[in-house]
Write a structure and sequence with these properties.
The chain contains seven helices and eleven strands. By secondary structure, it is α/β, with parallel strands linked by helices.
């Protein structure tokens, strides 16, 4: 899979290194040659010096064959311009733009662009940890509207079945790890002591989830 990353700041570098580490063919674009040096001498991808929304630069980076494009520069405007070109001109199937100002997210969503706002995600993550300190989510989805938790079966749930914890559209036991083996449970599957439950929960249902686990005040 070929991916182009525009912007070689902290986020761009991490994304690029993670992708190359997974075996992806990565090209990184930045107008500052010294920024490209942040990738390190062992970086296996390509480094392209230039403006990330310049057509010739994008072609040089291989956008005509790209499967993914990530706009991660420090400029919202540059990221959106580049993302729209990648999506609407070169028809790259997977396009993501970093967004600093979360107030613009809805506008760009209407344009069909997927955006990631680190400030919104960070705020949701902090609030989640402060308000539900007994439960630490291992993953958050969207802008924090839903979270994934790994928890050991609490004593009051042992012997009960999955149906007693599931609430349609709010709380879902997606998997159970038992004796180091994971499986997708049925509604009638009984919880056992030592089970690790993988549960997806809506942010708006956290108080209800805590009550079911016996963690409410």
């Amino acid at each position: 899979m070929k991916v182009i990353v525009m912007g070689c700041g902290r986020v761009g570098v991490q994304v690029s290194l993670l992708l190359t580490g997974e075996g992806y063919d990565v090209a990184v674009i930045d107008y500052d040659a010294s920024a490209l040096g942040r990738l390190g001498k062992d970086f296996k991808g390509r480094r392209i010096k230039g403006i990330g929304f310049d057509r010739d630069v994008l072609v040089e980076a291989g956008i005509e064959e790209a499967d993914g494009f990530a706009a991660t520069s420090s400029s919202d405007n540059a990221n959106i311009i580049a993302a729209r070109i990648a999506r609407n001109v070169f028809f790259v199937p997977h396009v993501v733009a970093r967004l600093f100002d979360p107030r613009r997210a809805e506008i760009y969503r209407r344009l069909g662009l997927t955006t990631i706002s680190s400030s919104t995600w960070g705020a949701e993550r902090i609030c989640g940890l402060l308000m539900h300190s007994e439960l630490d989510p291992v993953m958050m989805f969207g802008s924090g509207e839903a979270s994934l938790f790994y928890i050991e079966t609490p004593p009051q749930l042992v012997g009960n079945n999955v149906r007693s914890l599931n609430i349609a559209g709010e709380i879902q036991v997606t998997a159970i790890t038992r004796q180091n083996r994971a499986f997708v449970p049925l509604l009638g599957t009984e919880f056992q002591a030592g089970d690790i439950l993988h549960v997806t929960v809506l942010a708006s249902s956290m108080d209800r989830f805590k009550t079911l686990l016996g963690l409410s005040d």
